[in-house]
Amino acid sequence: MPSAPVATPTSAPAPEATEVVAVTPNPEWGVVRATVAQGASFTVNGSGYEPGQEIHISLGIDRTDSFVMDEQTAVADAAGNFGLTITIAADLLPGAYGILTYVADEGLGGPELEATKRFAGIDVVAS
Q1: Residue 75 is part of a domain; what is its CATH number?
Q2: How far is CA 28 from the centre of its chain?
Q3: pLDDT tens, position by position, 58-73
Q4: pTM, entire model
């Protein structure tokens, strides 16, 4: 009597690792650019701040004063670094956007405030 075939165990392919997009804004506009899909997240990083310093982060339409996200804040850690994860709204129209970071310490203004600004371009693509 022939024996029944033996099932060979198979494993499902491992899920692909989701690439984490990390953006480190630069004092000069146009140096840093990243692509992020609608509904996806990315991390804004920075360093060189005073421990405990508050960093303001905004996302807006490329090279305008029109923002598409409420301003967020991060606090520099003991080493002067920060990181903040931002999720792009699933219904945000694809296009060119920009990240602005700056420090708005009490009494800081004019050239001193401008010197704290950092920029990054974000290209939002359809998911």
Answers
A1: 2.60.40.1930
A2: 17
A3: 999 998 889 999 999 9
A4: 0.81
